[in-house]
Design brief:
CATH superfamily of the largest domain: Cytochrome c-like domain
Shape: elongated
Number of domains: 2
Number of helices: 13
Largest sheet: none
CATH topology of the largest domain: Cytochrome Bc1 Complex, Chain D, domain 2
CATH class of the largest domain: Mainly Alpha
Radius of gyration: 35 Å
Distance between the termini: 72 Å
C-alpha cells in the first residue's frame, strides 16, 4: 500500500470514528434532556396525545340494530311515562335558558320582562314557543312536547313570575278526555235546544267572538315579534362558544402545540406554568393571539400548522392561558 493510500485510509477511519463518537454524544445528551424535562412522566400530555390519536383513527360512525324486544321495551317505557306536569316540563326543557335569562330569554321570576311579552296575549306567546323565535328553537328544543304541554309550561313560568295566570293541569288531561264523550252527549240536547230557541242571537255571538279572537291574536303576534327581535342574534355565540372553544382549544393544543409547550422547548411557556405565563398574559389576550398567528421568536406562524384556521389557533391560546390561571 502506498503512502498516499495509507494516509487516506487513516483519515477516513479517523473521520468515521469521530462521527460515531458524535452520534453517541448526541444520543446521550438528548436522553438526558428528556429525562430532566419529565416529558415521559407528564400524564396530562400523554392523555392529550392519546385523545388526539384516538380521534384521528376513530371510525366515522357506528350502526347498531335494535331487536324487536328493545323496540317494544322503549315503546312501553314511553307509554308508561304518562303526562308530565307543567313544572316538570319547565324544569326539563325551559329552565336552561329561562332560569338564568341566558340568550335574552325572560328570566323566571322577572315580572317586568314577562309583563311586556304577556301584553301581546298568551296565544302569541304559545305560537312563538311552538314555532321558535330568535335564539329559541321550536318547542324549546323538545320536539316531543305537544301544543298543550307548551302552553302549560308558559302558563307555569308566567305564574312563577307573579302574573295572574291559571296553569293547565296536564295530569288530568287523560281522565278528562275519557269523560268527555259522556259529558258531550249529555250537554248536546241542552245546547241544541238553546240554539233552536234563539238562532239569530247564537250566530251573532259566534261571529263576534271569532272576530275578536282574530284581532287579539294578530295584535299579540305583532307585539311579541317587536319585543323579542332585539335579543336573539348576539346571545347564541356568547352562551355556546365558551364551552365549544375550550374543547376545540384542547384538541388543537394536542395536535400543534404540545411538542413545545409541554416541556418548554425554545423558551416556550410550559402548559400550566403560571410563572412563565403571567408575564405573557399581562400583555393581553389580543397580543398573544397575534403572536401565535404571525409567529414570535422561535415559534413559527400558527405553530407551524398553516392548515389551522385563525379561530382554531386563538382557541388553543385561550386553552393554554386558562390552564395557567
Amino acid at each position: 500500500m502506498s503512502d498516499h493510500d495509507s494516509s487516506f485510509f487513516k483519515t477516513f477511519v479517523g473521520v468515521l470514528g469521530f462521527l460515531v463518537v458524535l452520534a453517541f454524544v448526541i444520543f446521550f445528551v438528548a436522553q438526558y434532556v428528556i429525562d430532566k424535562s419529565g416529558i415521559n412522566d407528564n400524564a396530562e400530555t400523554q392523555s392529550i396525545r392519546d385523545e388526539a390519536i384516538a380521534k384521528r383513527i376513530a371510525p366515522e360512525g357506528k350502526v347498531r340494530m335494535m331487536g324487536d324486544a328493545e323496540i317494544a321495551s322503549a315503546s312501553a317505557g314511553a307509554a308508561s311515562a304518562g303526562p308530565k306536569s307543567a313544572k316538570d316540563i319547565v324544569a326539563a326543557t325551559c329552565a336552561g335558558c329561562h332560569g338564568s335569562g341566558v340568550l335574552g330569554a325572560p328570566k323566571i321570576g322577572d315580572k317586568a320582562s314577562w309583563d311586556a311579552r304577556y301584553a301581546g296575549g298568551l296565544d302569541a306567546l304559545v305560537a312563538s314557543a311552538i314555532a321558535g323565535k330568535g335564539a329559541m328553537p321550536p318547542r324549546g328544543g323538545n320536539a316531543s312536547l305537544s301544543d298543550e304541554e307548551v302552553r302549560a309550561a308558559i302558563e307555569q313560568m308566567l305564574a312563577d313570575s307573579g302574573l295572574d295566570v291559571s296553569v293547565s293541569d296536564l295530569t288530568a288531561g287523560a281522565a278528562a278526555s275519557e269523560a268527555a264523550p259522556t259529558a258531550t252527549s249529555d250537554a248536546a240536547p241542552v245546547a241544541e235546544a238553546e240554539t233552536a230557541a234563539n238562532p239569530v242571537a247564537a250566530a251573532t255571538e259566534a261571529v263576534t267572538h271569532a272576530a275578536s279572537a282574530m284581532a287579539d291574536s294578530a295584535a299579540a303576534v305583532a307585539g311579541s315579534v317587536a319585543d323579542a327581535a332585539g335579543n336573539a342574534a348576539t346571545a347564541v355565540s356568547e352562551a355556546v362558544a365558551p364551552a365549544a372553544d375550550s374543547a376545540r382549544g384542547k384538541e388543537v393544543y394536542g395536535m400543534a402545540c404540545v411538542a413545545c409547550h409541554a416541556v418548554g422547548v425554545a423558551g416556550a411557556p410550559r402548559l400550566g406554568d403560571k410563572a412563565s405565563w403571567s408575564a405573557r398574559i399581562a400583555q393581553g389576550i389580543d397580543t398573544l393571539h397575534t403572536h401565535a398567528l404571525k409567529g414570535f421568536r422561535g415559534m413559527p406562524p400558527k405553530g407551524g400548522r398553516m392548515d389551522l384556521s385563525d379561530s382554531d389557533v386563538a382557541a388553543a391560546v385561550d386553552y393554554m392561558v386558562s390552564q395557567a390561571q
